[in-house]
Specification:
The structure is a homotetramer of 138-residue chains. By secondary structure, chain A is of the alpha+beta class. In chain A, 22% of the residues lie in helices and 45% in strands. The first copy, chain A, is built from 3 helices and 8 strands; from the N terminus they run H-H-E-E-E-E-H-E-E-E-E. In chain A, strands 1-2-6-7-8-5 form a 6-stranded antiparallel beta sheet. The radius of gyration of chain A is 15 Å and the shape is globular. The relative contact order of chain A is 0.20. At the B-D interface, strand 5 and strand 8 of B face strand 5 and strand 8 of D.
Chain lengths: 138, 138, 138, 138
Amino acid sequence: MTQLLPALEAVQKILEPLFPGLMGVRLLTIESERVIAELFVRPDLCTAGGILHGGAYMAFADTLGAIGTVINMPQGKRTTTTDSSTKFIGGARVNTTVTGESLALHRGRTTMVWQTTIRSAEGKLCAVVTQTQLILDA
Amino acid sequence: MTQLLPALEAVQKILEPLFPGLMGVRLLTIESERVIAELFVRPDLCTAGGILHGGAYMAFADTLGAIGTVINMPQGKRTTTTDSSTKFIGGARVNTTVTGESLALHRGRTTMVWQTTIRSAEGKLCAVVTQTQLILDA
Amino acid sequence: MTQLLPALEAVQKILEPLFPGLMGVRLLTIESERVIAELFVRPDLCTAGGILHGGAYMAFADTLGAIGTVINMPQGKRTTTTDSSTKFIGGARVNTTVTGESLALHRGRTTMVWQTTIRSAEGKLCAVVTQTQLILDA
Amino acid sequence: MTQLLPALEAVQKILEPLFPGLMGVRLLTIESERVIAELFVRPDLCTAGGILHGGAYMAFADTLGAIGTVINMPQGKRTTTTDSSTKFIGGARVNTTVTGESLALHRGRTTMVWQTTIRSAEGKLCAVVTQTQLILDA
């Protein structure tokens, strides 16, 4: 099967008016089994103490896993996240940039499982998010 | 022990410049074992298709569980979320309002566990988020 | 729709040669939205230190949530757990009995979500397990 | 720091009278950042249909992640699992052998995070279990 991957810019443009756009998610790589993006830790993405809000980690990851699923689905299908589990490991400081890399653990017909690893600018592990995507008829 | 609960307005004010403020989280109730808030589903909180982004559910819930933990901690302590698990059950449409109610499942000295149930304006169950908060020395 | 619930003894008999039988899971109640069972904390269900093994909590709960799903499925369907998330809150001592109560959070056509609360003999909260069941054609 | 790893046989012997012994968990490798074991899918570890019970996956993984944590803890500490999240991906047939490999995602002073990947005899991915271990004073 030849898979036609969407242009990065086209996907980025779709995100702009949506929640990932509000947060400033910037896509870097879209491949069949891998989606990479970065996020600048603006003050209004933080929790008290000047570190990235836990919810921002989860929203960032959810975005990448969903993109990974969409580009792997056949025509005429849609997807919804049924479950997402996050382990928070380290904080990311305000005014730094974190990078998220989402890898396909499973790409089936009924479900896909994507795992996103978020790291600080220095490469320190911040969070690991594992999500299940259900594939449904559109 | 007499617990002095913070005024709702004081906590709301702390949230304003942070991620919950960006999202528009509005606190409604803060009690010892329960925190309630609402969120208007703005277009820029959505994913494609005009439904609330999964990440917004998770960020909304994480905010409530963290507030619940903070108001139950002794002086001289701080908290961090170590884990958050979300079951997505139903979508919330753009331009509606969802309500999140976070209840304490466990309030211990070392950890607390809070579970947030998010419902649509019609009372339909949208998501259940369960999070573990670690209590640390400040 | 009239739902015919299976006799408790019939389900118990199915469990006997399987993993729940090995563990000694004893069903107490099977209702449409609730399944209750008990488990005696034998030494060979424990981890070091004479407390119930974390895996035993999870296997106990998985059993109850699956039974709850099966009794709610239409004919011609089967189910598989896609996700299970557990918060461990307190230990259960060897030679005591724990009780698990599994409640339906969602009973849809495509997925069901069941949450099992496990308590010690004194009613202390030990663990909360939330699982997603996918409904498939048999 | 020189870390003295325990002899495989010594750990296996500790497991024998406990839940992992009941299940038949056989340790293969214990390294600082990796624990590997295998499990023969006996009929009494299965669910209906002759596939490994979801609870057995979780108990198998919980065992490996706990061993990994214990061998990395300083003297005078103990550990407890606070959270475990499992994605079920594929079934393992009765009378086959599955292998679990647990890797350290994080080894901190307060928490450790271990992720166990369980594969069938043919190398097919069956489940991914991610758990958080809290480190406490003994």
